Amino acid sequence: MALLEIQNLRVYYETRHGTAKAVDDVTFSVTSGGTLGLVGESGCGKTTIAKAIMRLLPGNGKIAGGKMLFKDRDLVSLTMDKVRRYRWEEIAMISQSAMNALNPVARVGHQIIEAMRAHRKVSQAEARVRMAQVFDLVGLNIERARDYPHQFSGGMKQRAVIAMALLLEPDLIIADEPTTALDVLVQDQIILKIKELLSRLNNAMILITHDIAVVAETCERMVIMYAGKIMEYADTDAIFYHPYHPYTLGLQNAFPSVMGARRELISIPGFPPSLIDPPPGCLFAERCPFAEPLCREQTPALEEVEPAHFSACHRASAVEEIRAKSREEGTWYNE
Ligand SMILES: Nc1ncnc2c1ncn2[C@@H]1O[C@H](COP(=O)(O)OP(=O)(O)OP(=O)(O)O)[C@@H](O)[C@H]1O
Ligand SMILES: [Mg+2]
User: Fold this and answer.
1) I need a labelling partner for 173 at 20 to 30 A (CA). Which of 75, 179, 199, 231 fits?
2) Which ligand is nearest to the CA of 23?
3) For residue 153, which of 207, 102, 205 has the smallest C-alpha distance?
4) pLDDT average, residue stretch 23-51
5) Which residue range is the domain that position 242 belongs to?
6) 202 Cβ below 6 A of ligand 1
């Protein structure tokens, strides 16, 4: 059962230079209690999708098309009044700048109590009980509730932000780069904590990250994005063991030991195209060693290449050959 169905979503930003198509015809779904990883290079539209779902786009950003079906509603057309009822209550977001999301001049415990009371008609004492529960859930010592954020370590702040997201028991949590600001050891602890919470509580999660290894450890399904479009969308195992899209292959090449050591997303040579005046055809063609003339002329549709496995590539039928060549030295870096 789909909890959230994103259908042909388009999100555009008006800029001084023109309209940037930050999210262009994106379709995926998250099942109830399911985990989905959203992966791609910087600027490919990951945070924009998260903000669109939360209806928190900045003034120059607008949903230009598509649907976001959540339970029985289309989030795209909800009035702000109704948005306030699902945002945080049913869908919570741990934002990329989460560390700055805490109010520096209020005690952490107090902030959580206030957040509870802003959404629920509960007494101070009841809110305090819930605060203690979420502190416990994320592994924070309740004795630290009286501390100010600056007295917390980076990992503790991140736990506090996760506690805040869990507070109202949302059905879906969107975690946007929840660990990038932390050192590697603390990253691991936070990821372990998130995994443990996911198995204990029954909420669904969209995990946004550059770190493909984190997704491999945490998520059942994966969306690989590039320049506002989905390149590949499949179960995590399929993405790792039977990838179809050259972009996915390129990413994997950048991390030969992805299932083992944790590696940052080192990009494929070259840069993503302009989102304002994109070239015709496949947006990845410019950097793709397997591109053919058709790739520069026609945008490939996201097609089901195997059951529940989607790839947007004109060359899907040559996948065996492409996989083999992708592993050869010189295919990606041929200077
Ligand atoms: N407020 C804005 N106004 C104009 N353009 C924007 C705005 N916010 C984002 N963009 C553009 O939209 C595109 C997608 O941005 P987004 O923040 O969604 O990327 P991202 O995948 O989250 O990247 P990162 O991994 O760096 O966080 C980028 O080209 C970005 O420059
Ligand atoms: Mg982002």
Assistant:
1) 231
2) 1
3) 102
4) 95
5) 2-90+170-326
6) no
Asked if 84 and 41 sit in the same domain, the reply is yes
Beta pairing class for 61-70 and 35-39? unpaired
Closest-CA residue, ligand 1 atom 12, reads: 22
Q: What is the value of pTM for the model shown?
A: 0.93
Number of domains in the chain: 2
- 70 within a domain of the structure (yes/no): yes
| Ligand 1 atom having least distance to the Cα of 48 | 18
Are 107 and 34 members of one domain? no
Q: Which of 47, 180, 206 to mutate to test the pocket of ligand 1 (most atoms within 8 A of CB)?
A: 47
DSSP string, 300-318: PP-EEEETTEEE--TTGGG
- With cut-offs at 50, 70 and 90, classify the pLDDT of residue 263: very low
Query: Is 37:251 a contact under the CB 8 Å cutoff?
Result: no
- Is 156 a pocket residue for ligand 1 (Cβ < 6 Å)? no
Reduced to 3 states (helix: H, G, I; strand: E, B; else coil), residue 206 is strand
Q: Is residue 61 within 6 Å of ligand 1 at its C-beta?
A: yes
